[in-house]
Specification:
Blueprint: H1 7-28, H2 30-33, E1 39-40, H3 41-48, H4 53-64, H5 71-87, H6 96-100, E2 103-104, H7 109-126, H8 140-155, H9 163-178, H10 181-186, H11 188-200, H12 202-212
């Protein structure tokens, strides 16, 4: 096995994998030990051992992919607030503590932890600080605008429309953690594809909105 480029990310990946195994084992034994304790978003954040804004974006983007009705739309609003706070060079997201207490369905927690483990394993093996000029403070507002666009696509009721923008945000969050400008640029690809899907779905969205609110102009 090749030596990891980032020991910290390697440690995060191993920690996430252990959490996933432990949670899956606990759920398997739930019938004997009683109902498993519900996980919350704050526990996904705490499992990182990193409270940075980049880690927050990574978790928020992952949560938008969870198969829970309405969760993606809610998280898209939080992601938009994250973009504003990050562009203003804030170190914390206002209201995060209240949101972080939101419980997650027990069945999807091990899968979420395994996804996070794979992401940090990718970071440990392949990512490194490069093209860091793209991460300079002067570029924060343009990248924040990109995050807003991705949040908008996630918010709109497009079937599976959250997949590509969420992938873009996952890559962006990883690039901020690893200081990897190349991955930051690469995050534009799935996000751009998501915007194309949005354009192709414009008529369908318009028809859906008119069906929901007949008073809208035709």
């Amino acid at each position: 096995m090749s030596r990891p480029r980032c020991p910290q990310a390697w440690g995060m990946a191993r920690r996430m994998a252990r959490h996933a195994q432990h949670e899956q084992r606990r759920q398997q034994l739930a019938g004997h030990l009683g109902p498993a304790q519900a996980w919350r978003i704050e526990q996904l954040l705490a499992a990182h051992g990193d409270a940075s804004m980049a880690a927050v974006l990574l978790v928020l983007a992952l949560v938008t992919l969870l198969p829970v009705g309405g969760l993606g739309a809610l998280m898209s609003l939080v992601i938009a607030a994250w973009a504003l706070a990050w562009a203003r060079q804030r170190e914390t997201l206002p209201g995060l503590q209240r949101l972080a207490r939101m419980p997650l369905p027990a069945a999807i927690v091990p899968r979420s932890l395994r996804w996070l483990a794979r992401l940090h394993l990718l970071r440990a093996r392949w990512l490194r600080p490069r093209y860091q000029a793209l991460l300079a403070p002067v570029w924060r507002w343009p990248w924040a605008l990109w995050v807003w666009c991705m949040a908008l696509v996630i918010f709109l009721p497009i079937p599976f429309g959250n997949m590509l923008p969420a992938l873009s945000l996952l890559m962006l969050g990883l690039s901020l953690m690893a200081r990897d400008g190349l991955l930051l640029l690469a995050s534009l690809a799935p996000g751009g594809a998501g915007l194309v899907v949005l354009g192709l779905s414009a008529d369908w969205i318009s028809d859906s909105l008119r069906a929901a609110w007949p008073v809208l102009p035709t």
